[in-house]
Design a protein that fits this description.
This protein is α+β, with helices and mostly antiparallel strands. It has 5 domains: 94 residues, 2-Layer Sandwich (Uridine Diphospho-n-acetylenolpyruvylglucosamine Reductase, domain 2); 119 residues, Uridine Diphospho-n-acetylenolpyruvylglucosamine Reductase, domain 3; 119 residues, Alpha-Beta Plaits, CATH 3.30.70; 76 residues, Alpha-Beta Plaits; 42 residues. It contains 17 helices and 19 strands. Strands 5-6-10-8-9 form a 5-stranded antiparallel beta sheet. A 4-stranded mixed beta sheet has the order 1-2-4-3. The protein has a 4-stranded antiparallel beta sheet with strand order 13-14-12-15, with helices on both faces. Helix 9 runs antiparallel to helix 11 and helix 13 runs antiparallel to helix 15. The longest helix is centred in the C-terminal third of the chain and has 18 residues.
Length: 486
Amino acid sequence: MPEGLSVSERYSRLREALAAVVGPRHLLADAADLAPHLVEERGRYRGRSPFLVRPGSTEETAEVVRLCAEARVPIVPQGGNTGLCAGAIPFEAGDEIVVSLGRLKRIRDLDAENFTITVEAGCILAELQQAAAEADRLFPLSLGAQGSCQIGGNLSTNAGGVQVLRYGNMRDLTLGLEVVLPDGQIWDGLRGLRKDNTGYDLKQLFLGAEGTLGIVTAAVLKLFARPREIVTAFVAVPSPQAAVALLGRARSATGETVTSFELIPRLGLEMALRRIDGCSDPLSAPSPWYLLIELYGGGDEGSLAEALESLLERAFEESLITDAAIAQNAQQAADFWRLREGLVEAQKHEGGSIKHDVSVPVSRVPAFIAEATAEVERRIPGVRPVPFGHVGDGNIHFNLSQPEGSEREVFLARWEEINEAVHDIVARLGGSFSAEHGLGRMKVAEAERLKPPIEIEMMRRIKQTFDPHNLMNPGKVVRPDRPEGV
């Protein structure tokens, strides 16, 4: 692009060039069209952008990136915009172009014998799951936003969900990637190989990078055998210590068939019962804690159910559990899951909520919950902690609902203070302050505070190597040496 142009002229010419690539109707500049793409899920961050581009292929994406690189205009890649750390939202300055991947939604290939599926970045997670099921295969990534989140976002945030215990997160589920690099070149790493020991595993650089090193346009993902037997139980336990003890026994007693092991506090259950239609308490007496346990198996019908029932009977005799209900049909299992999913939605109706997505070693989950609860109650009397989530992999969503009768904005104003206090406990226990939501914009400063300086320096060197002009999602994940310049 010619030198000496004013900023407005530069963006005007870029807009014309991009419209020629994607077609005028796929370049959005109207405020109403842009609005949904400029605010993140929780409404904490709102950005600005002169326009949004919707490429329809990898080649179009590459040309969009090349033109923006030539014009030195920064890019914010965006998928379903369901992230929780503002990683897909532009900054308020309004100089970043949003590149939406929603049109890249083809399933390019499904190789049932190789147990792989090749999909484009804009493919909706639920549609991928359905395609796998129709081929008698399972794609196990499962999370609340699966009806709207896109695979590109799942890859870029290294998404987790409720089945990480058994199948791993997106790093574990990915065999190959196709990526548009910051200069517009395309790297075709779409290899469906379990073994490829030919140097650096380059795909890992882009998994969890949140679009800061390039734009993921397609991926080869692992599939698994569909379970022939699914057993779901809702179990009352006296404490997180009992939950962790039961987890170890369940894994051993059922031959590592435990797929989900979700911790639910009584307060969270009560919120779901109070706020979400169709929720009912599965057990007759209240308990301070519950577990939602699900097992997947491929053996004889009923064998897993028998194994779980036997395990729960022994656990009851040893006072590890106080009650349990095993789902007798798919509807009852869905009702159990409705409680787990409902407590997330219910918190929105309980006033302000300060949230944490943290992980610690599974053995330290009870210590974390106890220490973090004591600390936040000391700082905010009457606060209502709702620690829940994936105890099977050590990922606890330590959410705090405002004290009853308090002012929402006064409570939320303490977000950073409470985050810091909770994250300090996590760090002391050898954990992570971001287990599955990524860093985005929200947690960059915490990364600089808590990660060893050498890690931040290595991340900066990688960013500089791939994106020397800092044009790919700048200010997210890792900042330049002088953060004030972002």
